[in-house]
Specification:
This protein is an alpha/beta fold. It contains 21 helices and 15 strands.
């Protein structure tokens, strides 16, 4: 009896894999059969649908190729252009056999999707941060953006928005890849017509480019995508170079070797307070919508402080950031370095470059303390800032509601500063230097706290009803006019709370320096707003303001339009010099 022939490995594999292959092939075969049957039964409709899909594919590809990267450049004329990349791409695809043509078309569509996403990110960053998206440094900011949305809109709405955004991005990549493949197939089916059309388009592009022909002020010939790729490559290169160059700059410090005994001698015995007011920008004082209310508040508070014996001088500083990234403004002011991105910030935080606040600690004559209601996690920057003690959002005893992103109203934070810090004398006969970060004027400016009696603040529960009766963040975010109006009110609230605290608790020794960290977002300040922020110094002791008489600042809390404008990075050295510090440079 002969044995049965044994099955080969290939036979076994085929038997195992064939059912799975049929499982995947069957729906596709069914779809193809149905499509073929439908097209045969409805030839006119099929032809119209095919033409429509092809036209939409071409429109999508062209729109992606000519899409600008700023909101102010958006307009119909921008999309009525001839992209050089389409002409070159058509010529290359025509020359390729089927398989490499399809692969190149799909890859090109995905790359075009990536460029489109980068253009959209540039638009968003331009509106919110006044700059383009940096592919090296800015990915970490998406976590902050998600937290901001969650604080403003709630977790459910934020998760839905994030999920929707991911779906849209993935769909964009898929649609662009399919669109380019479809157009490449069209070229391959009609090579003669496609070749002539490509040559004509190339000649037209060259002619329009050479003659500078325009429609509505926009050049007809476009190389937008190629330019965008070059810009992104240069941006990456510049970022990598900037890291090394900035490290060298950060090692140079005019006061780096100044002994503590020669730092701020004219402020010994004083109670010095540096306060940043969130988003307090030049637009709040000069924009026709926000300015009337804010200017009136500044004038009223100047008079109230004068009645209490305080005088003020004010000027302008040009911030290193715009719309957000408050920590960049804080560190630029305190370091005397231009810290305009996260990489520079990390470099400085890891260095021993002298901060203005650390200068006070270095004297040995000051206790140093920070009140940071916006800090809700570990804050290792405390060491660089030279702060002996920091109170974060969870250490101020607040039991009231959050006001969107802001963890507590400024008035409450200031009262806690008074009770926990300012009312207590430092040990050993020292003076005190404090750093306060106020947050109530943070976007989305809804709801805004209202002032209550200073003796009624308690644990903050008094704000429950105020928060519930306030505007909903979603309503203000969606309305530009409302955003501008509410932003102005939030600045009025923060400035009033701060100056009322000074009027109520300030002493002969109090020296208050307060300033904005950056302008509000472009939707509020405008697409062409400056980066300037107001800065004021307030004191009872006339000698404190006499020290800065040469600065030519404006009397009062409202800086004049033509008051001096300095870069924010120049403030540290000017302040240290004005109050008697002696430079002893450190050079690397």
């Amino acid at each position: 009896m002969s044995a049965l022939p044994s099955a080969s490995a290939e036979d076994v594999a085929e038997e195992v894999t064939e059912p799975a292959a049929r499982t995947f092939r069957r729906p596709w075969a069914t779809w193809q059969a149905w499509r073929r049957h439908w097209r045969e039964g409805h030839p006119e409709a099929a032809r119209a649908l095919s033409v429509t899909v092809t036209v939409l594919a071409a429109a999508l590809v062209v729109a992606a190729l000519v899409m600008p990267n700023t909101v102010v450049r958006l307009g119909p004329a921008k999309f009525l252009r001839i992209p050089a990349e389409a002409v070159v791409g058509a010529a290359v695809l025509l020359a390729l056999p089927r398989r490499p043509r399809v692969v190149l078309a799909a890859v090109s569509g995905v790359l075009l999707g990536a460029v489109t996403v980068l253009n959209a990110l540039d638009m968003g960053f331009g509106q919110y941060l006044g700059r383009d998206f940096n592919v090296v440094l800015d990915w970490g900011l998406f976590g902050d953006a998600e937290s901001y949305l969650e604080d403003s809109l709630g977790r459910t709405a934020t998760l839905a928005a994030v999920a929707g955004l991911i779906v849209v991005v993935l769909l964009l990549f898929v649609l662009l890849a399919l669109a380019v493949v479809r157009l490449s197939d069209l070229l391959a089916r009609h090579p003669g017509t496609a070749t002539r059309g490509t040559l004509v388009a190339g000649v037209v592009w060259i002619t329009c480019s050479s003659l500078g022909l325009q429609v509505a002020g926009v050049p007809i010939a476009s190389d937008r995508t190629a330019t965008a790729l070059k810009v992104q490559a240069r941006r990456v290169s510049d970022t990598l170079k900037d890291e090394a160059e900035f490290r060298k700059v950060a090692r140079v410090d005019a006061f780096g070797n100044t002994p503590g005994s020669e730092l701020v001698p004219d402020l010994r015995g004083k109670d010095v307070i540096f306060t940043f007011v969130e988003s307090y920008g030049r637009s709040a004082i000069e924009d026709p919508v926000m300015a009337p209310g804010v200017d009136r508040t500044l004038d009223v508070r100047t008079k109230a402080l004068a009645k209490a014996g305080f005088r003020a001088k004010s000027g302008w500083l040009t911030s290193a950031t715009y719309g957000g990234g408050s920590w960049l403004g804080h560190s630029t002011t305190m370091s005397g370095l231009w810290i305009s991105n996260q990489q520079r910030y990390r470099t400085v935080m890891a260095s021993n470059h002298l901060s203005l606040t650390e200068a006070f600690r270095k004297t040995g004559a000051f206790d140093t303390v920070g009140v940071m209601p916006g800090v809700q996690k570990g804050w290792p920057e405390q060491k660089w800032y030279g702060l002996d003690k920091v109170y974060n959002a969870f250490q101020l005893g607040y039991r009231g509601p959050k006001f969107s992103w802001s963890t507590m109203p400024d008035q409450y934070a200031l009262q806690q500063y008074q009770e926990r810090v300012h009312s207590k004398r430092p040990a050993g006969g020292k003076a005190r230097m404090s750093l306060l970060i106020l947050t109530s004027s943070h976007q989305p400016w809804a709801p805004i706290p209202k002032r209550v009696g200073w003796d009624q603040l308690g644990d903050g529960s008094v704000f429950d009803g105020i928060q519930a009766a306030g505007n909903k963040p979603a309503d203000v975010i969606a309305d530009t006019a409302k955003s501008r109006e509410e932003y102005g009110k939030s600045v009025q609230y923060s400035v009033t709370a701060l100056t009322e605290w000074l009027e109520r608790y300030g002493t002969e020794d109090t020296v208050l320096v307060f300033l904005g960290d950056h302008q509000p977002i472009a939707r509020v300040s405008g697409n062409h707003a400056s980066r300037d922020v107001p800065v004021s110094i307030v004191a009872k002791d006339p000698r404190m303001l006499d020290k800065i008489a040469g600065w030519n600042w404006t009397d009062g809390l409202r800086p004049a339009h033509d008051a001096p404008v300095w870069k924010m990075s120049s403030f540290r050295d000017r302040f240290l010099t004005a109050y008697g510090s002696t430079p002893h440079p450190k050079n690397g």
